[in-house]
Amino acid sequence: MPARMKFICDTERCIDCNGCVTACKNENETPWGVQRRRVVTIHDGEPGEHYLSVACMHCTDAPCMAVCPVDCFYHTEDGVVLHDKDLCIGCGYCSLACPFGAPQFPQANGGFNHRGKMDKCTFCAGGPEPENSAAEFRKYGRNRLSEGKLPVCAEQCGTKALLGGDADVIAGIYKQRVEIRGYGPELWGWDIAYAAKDGKPITHKGDGPRVNQQGGVAQNTAAKLPT
Q1: Left if phi > 0, otherwise alpha if psi is -120 to 50, otherwise beta: which for 30?
Q2: Does domain 5-156 have CATH number 3.30.70.20?
Q3: Cα-Cα-Cα-Cα dihedral of 155, 21, 98, 176, to 10°?
Q4: Which partner for 92 in 66, 101, 112, 140 could form a disulfide, CB atoms 3.0-4.6 Å apart?
């Protein structure tokens, strides 16, 4: 069964460094004014502030695909949502339909259908052109999946907040993280973000906090969340 490629951003790890944004821009040499990935702030300036790295989420039932009048969007065998720029007419319907603001125009000025072809995150999977060809790179950016690599944004994430890959695999990784945290965002620290200092697996003690979540430790002070 083919993989289902998805992204997950762990807001407990994202530190708003914008490394994913820079890596994407550099790897794909996207047009001026286009940010295939961006980091948004949740509860800006308030207790419980978090950051979220956002791009195309490669939806199983993609709204961009549903509204495109020329059917230029399609799913690959791995579930990645791509589009054919040779078919795209720049109407902008996909941009309006997408809840994540993924499809974008490559220019800052002009009206709809006068701003060129839409551009979006490709999960570093290229496009309909021959794999790793100059034409594919010029239109869609680097095709890292054909080289057996992860999307560059996920690979370059310094805290591993951004996970990219098969949905079942990254969901399992995130599930394990949540179980380790025990109480979600209430407690956090280096031991939770990486591993216990003694190298042993992190375990829990009955219904109480995990062994790496004891209060009074500088790295594990509780976060003040909005009530």
Answers
A1: beta
A2: yes
A3: 40
A4: 112
Model pTM? Answer: 0.75
Cα 116 from Cα 95, distance rounded (Å) = 13
- How close are the terminal C-alpha atoms of the chain, in Å? 45
pLDDT, tens digit, 9 for 90 and up, residues 130-156: 998 999 999 999 999 999 999 999 999
Q: Which residues pair with 7 in a beta bridge?
A: 164
Domain residue ranges of the chain, discontinuous segments joined by +: 5-156
Residues 6+ apart with CB under 8 A from 129: 135, 136, 139, 140
Contact of 119 with 163, CB cutoff 8 Å: no
- Amino acid (one-letter) located at 91: C
3-state secondary structure of 54: strand
Query: Left (φ > 0), alpha (ψ -120 to 50) or beta: where does 43 sit?
Result: left
Return the closest-CA partner of residue 142 out of 121, 160, 161.
121
Give the per-residue SS3 of 161-215: CEEEEEHHHHHHHHHHHHHHHCCHHHCCCHHHHCCCCCCCCCCECCCCCECCCCC
Query: Residues 41-46: contacts with CB within 8 Å, 24+ apart?
Result: 41/16, 42/11, 43/226, 46/226
Please write the tens of the pLDDT for every residue from 56-93.
999 999 999 999 999 999 999 999 999 999 999 888 89
Task: Using the Cα atoms of residue 164, residue 168, residue 169 and residue 170 in order, give the sign of their dihedral.
Answer: positive
